[in-house]
Amino acid sequence: QKEVEQNSGPLSVPEGAIASLNCTYSDRVSQSFFWYRQYSGKSPELIMSIYSNGDKEDGRFTAQLNKASQYVSLLIRDSQPSDSATYLCAVIGKGNNRLAFGKGNQVVVIP
Amino acid sequence: DAGVIQSPRHEVTEMGQEVTLRCKPISGHDYLFWYRQTMMRGLELLIYFNNNVPIDDSGMPEDRFSAKMPNASFSTLKIQPSEPRDSAVYFCASSWGGSNVLTFGAGSRLTVL
Fold first, then answer.
1. Of chain A residues 70-99, which have a CB less than 8 A from chain B?
2. Pairing mode, if any, of strands B19-24 and B5-7?
3. pLDDT over 70 at B1, yes or no
4. How many angstroms from the chain centroid is the CA of residue A60?
5. Which has the least CB within 10 A, A2, A83, A97, B75?
6. Inter-chain contact A99–B56, Cβ cutoff 8 Å?
């Protein structure tokens, strides 16, 4: 089993809609969770971090963490064309700084 | 700060040649990471350093790959000899240990013919 899995294919959403992305992880003792955004041909950039169960909101982005079920999700509200990118889920285990990434989910926002 | 600086941005070489990728982390960051990104495998951690010391190199694919960090402001990733399957984008990233938040460089796109 991969450390971090993002299984959904490309996601197309109309402008203004909600985009929902999911991620599961295998290490039950993982402590820190991140969402990075990567535009085509560019490097990943951090958009959200979450450490505790529940929801964390930052502008149009909401991260959700459920440690019991070992999943992390990202909601993008009022999606804009500028949100079109690949979103990478990343997880750090307990007691180390080894950040493992999922393969990413491509989001396409259609004007 | 200029961010994480990587060079070269693009490298095209022939199979069997030595390749050296360079990275300058953000000043004050004590962690440095080397990642490789391909369509098939995504973003893979190759090795990371803390205070210039290699901590985890379990992701280094084989002995052809080596990485060094001689001081806090410079790291290299070397591939010798290079093979076509090494073609990928190689990212360097740095962080301040307490944050676990990585800042990535622009990447080095390697093509091995």
1. 88, 92, 96-99
2. antiparallel
3. no
4. 14
5. A2
6. no
